[in-house]
Amino acid sequence: MAQTPRTLPSRILLRQPDDWHVHLRDGAMLEAVVADTARQFARAIVMPNLKPPVTTTALGTAYRDRIRAATPAGVAFEPLITLYLTDALDPDEVRCGVGEGVFTAAKLYPANATTNSAAGVTDVANIRGVLAVMQDLDMPLLIHGEVTERHIDIFDREAVFIERTLIPLVRDFPGLRIVFEHITTAEAAAFVAESGPNIAATITPHHLLLNRNAMFDGGIRPHAYCLPVVKRETHRLALVAAATGGSGKFFLGTDSAPHAVEDKESACGCAGIYNAAHALEAYAQVFGAAGALDRLQGFASDHGPDFYKLPRNSRQVVLERTPQQVPVSIHAAGTSIVPFLAGTTLDWTFAGFADQR
Ligand code: DOR
Ligand code: ZN
Fold it and tell me: Where does Zn(2+) 1 bind (predicted)?
């Protein structure tokens, strides 16, 4: 039964969540953003689309060290590092990085699909050797699922990717664990739901809260632009149903992707939405509106570790039903970032750990 606002609880306790898809960047931007993620999430799958990308065990180790160094003292946060797949990647690099405990997963960016993906994979045929090793090692493959052909409508690129690339890939590597990242369409939600237990998906707060009108609301809105782009309302509703439906195949992945304000508000603005500062509250907004707050813990805290075969977190966090306004801008790296939902009011406030209150 749908919960009306009057029946919403005044606080919720949740097992501490993890973020199964985040961009922490590097250098000054890493220093500026990592605390927002580390404050709420025990672990995060950190995306490897740096300049240069994380394509070797040595680069992965060094990046993990920089993230740890940038994490505020006393905050328990574990970055889980991902390997950036390229056409030329040696399968031995995968064996080495997994053997040394550096890489949790590997990320497939179709070349030129999104930010810093120029070195990505031009054809899945080029990485068959790597995928075979990953399947052997039971290492999850994380996929940015969009075709890149410019003649294909940008709103159709995810659905076309399923037909052309994902279905053959799943057929050829039936034992490979795959996370279809940041799904945006009813087609993707259905594909994942109907696939075997080795196929799962992350869903972002922005794809749960926005439809494509948000990019054109009274004028062009660069802060609602990300890739894959938000789709029409029917797709948003399908994603909400998937996230709140209780299936273990769907879990939290913010795809929080910070860009300096001047890079977003530009004639060719970057793709990416920064939602890390209020991520859990934004998801709570979605689950509250759907009358499904009792399923938030599964989505945010249980399904991800279960899929990754990692232990669930033991601490509990508290969300209080205290309204808060999202700042219109956040200082970062000598400039500012306009966060997701800037200036709007959220119903919930993250109130720390239950054992520290
Ligand atoms: O919107 C996006 N931003 N989508 C991606 O796939 C990459 C990300 C980024 O790194 O900025
Ligand atoms: Zn991403």
Answer: 21, 23, 107, 255
